[in-house]
Every structure is written in C-alpha cells, then in structure tokens.
Design brief:
- The chain folds into four domains: 4-365, 3-Layer(aba) Sandwich (Kinesin), CATH 3.40.850; 367-407; 413-542 and 551-622; 726-912, no CATH class.
- By secondary structure, it is an alpha+beta fold.
- Helix content is 65%, strand content 10%.
- It starts with a strand and ends with a helix.
- The protein has helices at 48-65, 81-86, 95-108, 175-187, 241-248, 254-268, 282-286, 309-323, 334-354, 367-407, 413-543, 554-570, 575-578, 582-693, 701-763, 782-785, 788-814, 818-823, 830-895, 906-917; strands spanning 4-9, 21-23, 26-28, 35-37, 40-42, 69-75, 87-88, 92-93, 120-133, 136-139, 151-152, 154-157, 161-164, 170-172, 193-194, 197-198, 204-215, 222-230, 296-303.
- It is elongated, with a radius of gyration of 53 Å.
- The chain has 20 helices and 19 strands.
- Strands 1, 5, 6, 9, 10, 11, 14, 17, 18 and 19 form a ten-stranded mixed β-sheet that branches. The protein has a three-stranded antiparallel β-sheet with strand order 2-3-4, with helices on one face. Strands 7-8 form a two-stranded antiparallel ribbon.
Length: 918
C-alpha cells in the first residue's frame, strides 16, 4: 500500500505573488514540468476542516479498528505546516485538535461501543511528544528544568522496537485535556536562533497517540498508534549534502539528509524482502514503521504560493519518491503483536551474537563526522577567543570612561533633589490614580462577571425554551399526523355510511313495492278463490247430489286460502332483519378501527424508544447545570482572590513609595547637615583670617605652623565633605540612569508588541484604516529622550570646566602653584605668604558668597522651568498613554481578544454557532 499525498497551498501574504504552475490536481515549478500528481490539491481557499473530513477521518476509523496510521506534514519552512497541525488559537483548530475531538467522541459513542459486531471495551489513550533537533531528542511533555540530562536517548526492545527511553506517557481522559497538553508541548519546542535560521526550521516534531482497547472476548488488548510528524523544512534538499555538512556541521541537517536517503531507497525497492538502513539519523530510526513498515501513512505537502523554482523542483522530487514508498499495515491484535515481538527478539539476539549490538544509538557516528565536529569546535573556539578579546577591550574602555565620569566633579546639589521630590510627588499621585483605577477595574470586572452570569442564565433558559419548543413542535407534528390519519378514516367511514344509507333506502323502497304487490296479489287471490268457490257451489247445485270427497269443501278451501293470505301479509320483513348480525358488526368495527390501534401501538413504541434519550438528555442538562454552577462559584472565588492580591499589591506598592520617600528625606537631611558643616568650616576659615589680620603682627613661626596645619585640616575636611556629596549625587545619577534605561527598554518592548499586533492584523486582512496610526507616530525624538536632568548635567560639566580654567588663570595671575606650596619652608617669606593667604581667603569668601547667591537664584529659576517641563511631560505621558491603550484595545478587539488579553468568552461563540445551526 503506497503512501497517499495531498497538496495544500498556503494563502498569499501581502505583496506575495504566485509563481507555482497548477493544472488541475498537479503542480510543477515550470510549465514544461515535471509535474507531481496529488490525490487532491487544496487551493488557497481550502481549510483544515476540509482536509480532515476528506483525508484524516478515514485514517481515524482505521486507527480505531486497530491499524497503525501516520500523517506526514512536510514542506518548505513558512509554508504553513505548523498551522495545518495546530491551527490558529481556539477559533480555527488544526488537524490534531480535530483528531482529539473526533477520537474521544467516537470512543464515547454507542455506535462504536455497543452496536458493532465486535464489542470494544476499556479504551485507553496515551500521548507522547518529542522534538528531534541537531540529533538531540527533547521530551515536549516534560516541564523543563535547570537540571542537566534534559535530552533523551534511543533504545530498542523486542516489545516496543526502537523507542525513546524514559519518555513521558500522558494518559488522556478527554479531548480538552489532550488539546491542552498538546499546545503546552508545542510551546516547549526549541526557540533559539542560529546563524542558519530559527531552530524550528531544522527540527522535527513527533506526536504519538497510543490506543489500547479490548475487542470482544479477547483478554489481550489491541494496540494502535496514530503518529503525526512535522518534518524539517525541505528547502535544503536543493543543496549539496557535503556542502551542508561543511557549512552547518554534521548534525544540524543530518536528519533531513538521512530521511532523503531512506525515502530514495524505499521508493526504488518496493518488495517486502528489502533491507533498508535506518540508522543514519535518530529521526529515521523513530520512523522505521511509518516509512516502509506496519503503518498506513498519508502525507500532506504544504506549499507557498511564491517559491524558488529550484527548491520547488527538489521538494516535488522528494514528494514523488514518498508516494512510491510501499507500506504493509496489518491489524495489531494480540497475535500480530506477539509475532512481531518474536521477530524483533530474534533480530536483537542475532545482532548480539554477531557483535553488532546493542550499542547506544545516540552515539553512532563515523570518523569523518567526528573530525568535522572537532574542526568546527576549533573554529568556534578561535572565534570565541577573538570575541572575548574584543569584549575585554570594550570593558576596559568603558571602565576608563566610567572612571573619567566618576572623577569628574559635578555639583548636582539641590536641583536634582528638588526634582526627586517632585518625582516622588508625581509617583504618589500616580499610585493614588492607580489605586483608583484598580478600584474602577475591580468594579468593572464584578459588573462584567455579573453580566456574564446573567448571559449564561439567559442562554440556559433559551436552551431550555428551545428544547421545550422542539418537544412541543414534535408533539404537535405527531398530533397533526395522527389528526390527518383520523380525518382520512373519518372520510372513509362517511363514504361507507353514505353508500350503506343509499343501499338501505333503496332496499326499503323495494320492500315497500314488494309489500304492496303482495297485498294486490293477495286480494286478487282471494277474489279468485271466491270465484272458484262460487263456481264449485254452482257445480254442486247443478249436480244436485252429495259433494264428492275428491273435490273437497269449497268453504274449507276458502278458509285455508284466507288463512294463508293473512299469514303472508302479517309476516312483513323488519328493518332489524335487513341489518347485519353482531358478528358482522364486530368484523366491520375491527376492520375500521384496526388502523387506530396500530397507530396507538406505534406511538407507544416511539415513546418507549425515545424515552431513554429524553431521560438521558435531561440528566445531561442537569449535570451541565451543576457543572456550570460549580464553574461560576470557582470563577467567583478566583475573582475574590485576584481582588485580594490586587489590594495586597497596592499596599506593598504604597509601603515601597513610603520607604522611598523616607530614604529621600534622609538624603535631604544628610545634604543639609553637609551644607551646614561646610558653612561652618568656611566660617572658621573666615574667623582665622580675621584673627590673623587683627593680630599683633609679631611673627611667630611655631604658632603659624600650627595654624597652617589647622587650616590645612579644615580644607581637607571641606574637600572630604564635597567628595562625599559628590559620591552621593553620583549614586543618585546612576540610579536615575538605570531607571531611564529600563523605561527605554519597556518603551521599545511596547513598540515591538504594537508592531507585532499590526503585522498580525495585516495577515488577517484587517483594513489599515481600522488599525490606527503607524508606529513611527509613537517614536520619541532625541529632544524628548534627553531629559532636563541630562541637559542640566551637561551644563554643570561645562561650568566646572570653565571654573577650572578660571582657577588656573588666577593661580598664574597671583604666582601661586602647587610646586611653590610644596617647596615653601617655615620662616621663608612668611609675611608675603600669609598676606597672599589672607587675600585668597577674603576673595574665596566673597566669591563663594557671590557664587552661592547666583547659584541660588539660578536654581530657583531652573526649578520653575523644571516644574513647567514636568507638567508638559505629564500631559504628554497622559495623552500618549491613552492613545497607546486605545490602539491596543482596538487591535485586541480586531483580533478577537478582550481588553484583558484573554480569548473571547466561549458562550458568545456557542451562541453564534447555535444561531448558525438554527
């Protein structure tokens, strides 16, 4: 039995033309061929439901009957393979969810459990899901963890054949659980991206649905397996295998190359005595039965409307070879299983005797692949060393830049702190607004929940009313049919009554005629008898003798005739004598009313036949109502839990904001204490300068030396105080920079999510006018990104540079340098030195006071400017945030999601489906 092949062309995307040559049920890359004939080709309007009904449902029937079946989904990357298997969300199911729904519905149905000739009992369905990528097997049903050894190995036993060791077997109870486990397993597939594309383009996904079910009186269960395989992208078949190994390594495309070799060998040798090597790849080892073994296999080739002709030619050639592969499926009853197990045991024993096995299948390779791997690893190590060196150089340069920035003395003083206070106030306002928003959202959710419950109650009432309506319609229809039949019988009886009445009247008239005739005849007979008697008397008188005995007495004869006439006239035929007997009446009633009894018996039979269905339906409705009540209670409890968690989260956020405010308050306090300390030091220096100026003027080297040390110590304390303040401001600036970077990342993620939503809407064919503005309308300019803080820091840096240059010019002007201060000895030019020191102190005091006054004035003005900028920023944030929310909600509604990001309620879809059915 060869492998069947179905074609499916994906719908075109935007700006995607079609270059495939399609003629009827065949496809080619060029008009001159070669062509590939499909069993059936689905164009762009073909859906997954059409494929399932026409080609997968009969496979499911064979699977339930005990055959191994397989569905191979292949094609180029991006041709819709995954969509064919999984579908799109819960609105457009793929083949696998449809298989689960149909399988469990058929197993639960009576026509597959009771009405069949061979009774099926105790069905058990198990699910296995694996991914083969880079010759590594990953269990998709196992929750990933950080432990090592996450990849599985292959094993071979007489009972199971080639299988995955320690794989997860998930026992399925219903279709909902099966679909959930299947989608969770798909989400665990490898999502990394290499230099050669995403991992899913080079990975194969295997789904095994095992069915164990007992047939009839056989105690041994029949085992069947439904395998769904999503093959890697076939676009690499057009490349040279040796070139692929050199470019990508020995393992990345090994599965596809080995699969092509196995299919080529099987297509060229269709006889059952063939010997095919499946050991070149783990994928081919796992597909030993599906390709050329005990399995009914059907393939689905997914095609893109626009494809490279060379790639399409390679794909069509591979598909042609697949259709030439011959399988040998049998029913997997206990006898076939035992026979196959016996042959496998013999093969394994022969391998062990010949020294071939068993060997770890995951480690079978050749020397060329090992050398190629070593060479690839060496190249990778060199590349990583170069990258490491470049990163080290970059880190050193960044560290030097960071050191330069840290060493740069900046005075962010009160401006940054005031801004932080304003920021805290704004944060507090935002927290209050968020609390209010959460309250409003909770009220909206409660209202939504109540409305949903009302809708569900109304839907249940509608369903009950619909069921009652159907019941009444059915009763009315039966009554109408019965009334029609009774009316027909009444008409028949009326016709028969008219006929009988007419016959009766005719007979009465005939009877009256006969009675009158008899009376006339009686009168005439009496007249004749009287005449005869008179004649006889005359004869006797003429004879004048005794009447003879032979003639008789005339009077006696007249009396006899009169008596006879009276008797005949008195015996009139009565109406009761004309009517039929009771037996005839009963036979007529039985003939007339037999249909009524037959109809009553038919009604009783229908009532008994559908009574169980009605009771079962009522029981099912009660069960569903109970489940609905439980689901409502559970949803209500979860809503309460969510509300409690939101309240706790709001409280925690409030505590966090209070701690931040307290921390900022302490920072302000430390700043004030530092400023007080610095002002005191400045005052001390001024007092010392005044004391020196107003002193006796007698030189005293010892006192001057101690005074100089004291002044140096105070200057050092001032320097340390400024340095501590600088470190504090540097730390605050670093935190602000980190916060700004996080905000920028979130802003970029928001733009990416908005872009993805627009692309999804475009793929679904939504009008661009309904999707809102483009993403470039939401991008911030450089002036908006550079906040007022960064501008203020840049300005302060420039002022620091100018002050340093002024300080250097003043030192040069007064002839003071660092070398002069170091070489100065006690007693040398003391008066000039102290005069210069006093002059510098006075200038320092005056300049400091002037600078502080200027700084205070400037900071106050900048504070007003920052307040205005903050108000503008807040307005900008409110406007753009509202726009973002509106656009996101609009796009979610277009995609079929609600405002919270979840799927639209199932009841709405059920209502729509019911409306469509009715």
């Amino acid at each position: 039995m060869n492998i069947d092949l179905i074609g499916k062309i994906r719908p075109s995307l935007r700006a995607e033309a079609e270059n495939i040559v399609v003629e009827g049920q065949r496809v080619a890359a060029h008009p001159r061929g070669p062509y590939l004939n499909f069993q059936q080709l689905y164009r762009k309007d073909g859906t997954n439901l059409d494929v399932y009904r026409n080609h997968v449902e009969n496979l499911l029937d064979l699977y339930i009957a005990g055959f191994n079946v397989c569905l191979l989904v292949m094609g180029e990357s991006g041709s819709g393979k995954t969509y064919t298997i999984t579908g799109e969300g819960t609105t457009k199911n793929g083949l696998v969810p449809m298989i689960f729904d149909a399988l469990f519905s058929k197993l639960a149905g009576e026509r597959y459990m009771q009405d069949t000739k061979v009774r099926r009992q105790n069905p058990q369905v198990e699910l296995e899901m694996y991914e083969v990528y880079n010759e590594l097997i990953k269990d998709l049903l196992q929750v990933p963890s950080g432990a090592t050894g996450a990849f599985l190995e292959l094993g071979e036993t007489a009972e199971k054949g080639v299988h995955v060791k320690n794989g997860t077997h998930m026992l399925l109870k219903d279709a909902a659980q099966a679909t959930t486990e299947f989608r969770q397993g798909l989400n665990r597939r490898t999502e990394s991206t290499t230099d050669y594309g995403p991992a899913q383009h080079n990975a194969a996904t295997l789904i095994h649905i095992d069915l164990n079910m007992t047939f009839g009186e056989n105690p041994q269960p029949t085992k069947a397996c439904f395998t769904i395989v999503e093959l890697p992208g076939l676009e690499k078949l057009s490349d040279d295998p040796n070139h692929l190994r050199q470019k990508e390594g020995p393992a990345l495309s090994k599965a596809l190359i080995a699969l092509n070799q196995v299919v080529t060998s099987l297509s060229s040798n269709p006889f059952p005595d063939r010997v095919i090597s499946y050991g070149d790849s783990k994928l081919t080892q796992l597909l030993r039965e599906e390709l050329g073994g005990n399995c009914k296999t059907r393939g689905i080739l997914c095609l893109k409307p626009q494809i490279d002709p060379a790639v399409l030619t390679s794909v069509l050639q591979f598909s042609t070879r697949v259709t030439q592969v011959k399988n040998f499926p049998v029913v997997n009853d206990s006898f076939a299983q035992h026979l196959i197990t016996q042959y496998r045991a013999q093969i394994i024993d022969l391998r062990q005797q010949s020294g071939i096995g068993p060997a770890p299948m995951a480690r079978v390779t050749n020397v060329g692949d090992i050398k190629e791997t070593i060479r690839q690893l060496e190249t990778e190590n060199l590349r990583l060393l170069d990258d490491n060196e470049r990163l080290r150089n970059r880190i050193e340069s960044m560290q030097s830049k960071f050191g330069n920035i840290a060493n740069t003395k900046t005075d962010l003083s009160q401006q940054l702190l005031l801004t932080e206070e304003e920021k805290l106030k704004i944060s507090q306002s935002l927290v209050e607004m968020q609390i209010e928003n959460n309250k409003i959202r909770e009220e909206a959710e409660a209202t939504k929940f109540e409305l949903t419950n009302k809708i569900l109650i109304l839907e249940n009432e509608l369903m009950e009313a619909q069921a009652e309506k159907d019941k009444n319609s059915k009763t009315a229809r039966n009554a109408k049919d019965r009334l029609t039949e009774m009316e027909k019988d009444r008409k028949d009886l009326a016709d028969e009554y008219v006929v009988l009445k007419t016959n009766y009247l005719a007979m009465v008239r005939e009877h009256e005629k006969e009675t009158k005739r008899n009376e006339d005849l009686s009168v005439e007979l009496l007249n004749l008898v009287n005449a005869k008697a008179a004649l006889m008397k005359q004869i006797n008188a003429m004879v004048d003798g005794e009447p003879s005995a032979s003639m008789g007495d005339p009077d006696a004869e007249v009396s006899r005739v009169k008596a006879l006439v009276m008797q005949n006239s008195s015996r009139k035929i009565r109406t009761e004598d004309i009517t039929g007997t009771d037996k005839d009446r009963e036979s007529v009633e039985k003939a007339l009313f037999a249909n009524r009894k037959r109809f009553e018996g038919e009604m009783d039979r229908i009532r008994k036949e559908h009574g169980d269905d009605r009771n079962r339906l009522e029981t099912k409705v009660e069960t569903m109502q109970k489940e609905l009540t439980d689901a409502r209670n559970l949803a209500r409890e979860r809503q309460h839990k969510i509300a409690e968690l939101n309240a706790a989260l709001i409280m925690v956020r409030g505590d966090k904001e209070q701690l931040e405010m307290q921390f900022n308050r302490l920072q302000h306090k430390v700043k004030d204490i530092g400023e007080d300390f610095r002002s005191r030091l400045v005052k001390y220096v001024e007092d010392i300068s005044e004391y020196v100026d107003k002193g006796s003027g007698v030189p005293d080297a010892k006192r001057e030396k101690r005074l100089r040390q004291y002044v140096d110590q105070m200057l050092k304390d001032m320097t340390m105080s400024h340095k501590e303040r600088e470190e504090q401001l540097s730390h605050a600036a670093q935190q602000y920079r980190d916060a700004k970077r996080d905000i920028a990342h979130k802003y970029e993620e928001l733009l990416v999510a908005y872009r993805n939503l627009r692309l999804t809407c475009e793929m679904r064919g939504i009008d661009p006018v309904d999707m809102g503005p483009d993403e470039h309308h939401f991008k911030l300019s450089d002036q908006e990104i550079n906040s007022a803080h960064l501008k203020e820091i840049s300005r302060l840096k420039n002022e620091l540079t100018s002050l340093r240059s002024e300080l250097d010019s003043i030192k040069l002007k007064f002839g003071i340098g660092d070398d002069d201060l170091k070489n100065l000895k006690p007693g040398e030019k003391s008066l000039e030195t102290w005069a210069a020191v006093r002059k510098q102190l006075r200038e320092f005091t005056l300049n400091t006071q002037q600078q502080l006054e200027d700084e205070r004035t400037r900071l106050m003005s900048e504070n007003e400017v920052l307040k205005e900028q903050l108000r503008e920023s807040q307005n900008y944030i409110d406007i753009h945030l509202a726009r973002y929310k509106q656009e996101v909600v609009k796009l979610r509604r277009l995609l079929g999601y609600d405002e919270d990001g979840g799927v639209v309620a199932v009841t709405d879809r059920n209502t729509k489906s019911k409306n469509r059915r009715h």
